[in-house]
Amino acid sequence: MSENPDQPTSENSPAESASHPAGHGRGTLYLIAGILLAIVTAVVLVWVLPEPVSPDQVHPAIPIFEAIGIGGEVFLRALMMVVIPLVMVSVMSGILGLGDVRKLGRPGAVAVGYYVATTILAVSVGLLVVSIIQPGNNANLDKDSTISVSGEDRQTVLDTLVEESGLQEEKVAKIFPQLEEGNTESPGISELFGDLILMLVSGNLFASAVEMQLLPLIVFSIIFAGMLTTISRRVDTITTLIEEANTAMMAFVMLLMKVAPLGVLCLITPRLGIKLAEGELFATLEQTGWYMLCVILGLAIHSLVTLSFIYWWATRKNPYQFMRDMSQALLTAFSTASSTATLPVTMECAHVNAGISKKSTNFVLPLGATINMDGTALYEAVAAVFIAQIYAATPEAAAAGFTLNLTTIILIAVTATLAAIGAAGIPEAGLLTMMIVLNAVNLPIEYIGTILMVDWLLDRFRTAINTFGDSVGCAVVERSFAASESG
Questions:
Q1: For all residues of the chain together, what is the average pLDDT?
Q2: pLDDT (tens digit, 9 = 90+) per residue, 340-355?
Q3: Which of 159, 97, 28, 34 is nearest to 361 (CA)?
Q4: What ranges do the domains of the chain cover?
Q5: Top-tier CATH class for 25-47+56-486
Q6: Cα–Cα distance between 437 and 115 in angstroms, integer?
Q7: Residue 183 Cα distances to 227, 279, 420, angstroms
């Protein structure tokens, strides 16, 4: 038996395997306790502090939540800080580990096929659930739940979107060109994919790194590392530097994971607490409860049934044990609402807890965090049908000749699938791709206000499913790497 001396000992270390369950169990319980503490703290602070004297008075709990939120922002920025260098060195390290770049062909094809197939399945599940439950027919919406975009109301619309999305006003105006006076154009699928193709190659890698555009960085890393595998020993120093940098970055991730429960506490408490303090949470749940049920139920079916079956079929292992191994990454994704920020934790959990090789994790997970959006695709399909159900019952829909039929649902499915896959090349992809889906079936853009009320909460669920989908893909592609090496 021969072993690669450069292969990290953590992959096959008996000592590590023996200590894994206990260490993993303690870490998972620690993180879950932190999240539960965050929710309990938010509720307790709201109920124990006095109510405002008048409706115009700021609730005394809100400044406390805002102060706690600073800690969450620090943790989130720490995760984002490590993403760019980690993605580049990990992708390069994964390609270099192949020894021959030609071995990437089969795993790469399997990865792309997996991304497309699971996105289609996610959209199908979402459409099935929303068609059965029909939340739009049971919605209890106020008259102000939709947003008018005419004339003098444009600034009001802009302010509402800024408040609900948390984005800067300039970014919201760029995403929704309808809000600009005299502009009635909106982007379509062709424009989205045009941006995606252009984003494959960057004119300035440093600018791409600053703007967190991962796709061109991944493309460069694959090409550069593939070139290194063809130059033989003349680049041994660079190869060693990349591999050691990857080891160092993963050590930094382990350091961040030690403070993850505190970071999660500071991330969840302010958002939930402020909504409770402002009295918006329960009113929002009452108005859009059926819609939220559809999204969460669809995401649950996709993760617990569809993705779990794919994992079992590809590996013949228990998918729920795998979910437990990835639990720290999934809970971090729920807390941060960012699969990109969660990427360092996902890579560490997949390799250390789930035992997936670094070749697969280093290649599949960065790419998946960029273009694989199962949860987002399902969410957009459900949201579009929900809005269509509401709009179809209005006099405006009758006047416009709009009907929610099978053709409309199929168009929503195709558009949501393509938009989710192509969302990597644009900033703030969720809002823009949602608008593309609405435009594809001629739904009024102002009805996006009905889903923005709960987007902040549902975003966390769909991000967790995005992360789990990436993790399952990593396990599926693992077999392709093994087959390529044996072949």
A1: 76
A2: 888 888 998 898 889 9
A3: 97
A4: 25-47+56-486
A5: mainly alpha
A6: 19
A7: 46, 36, 25
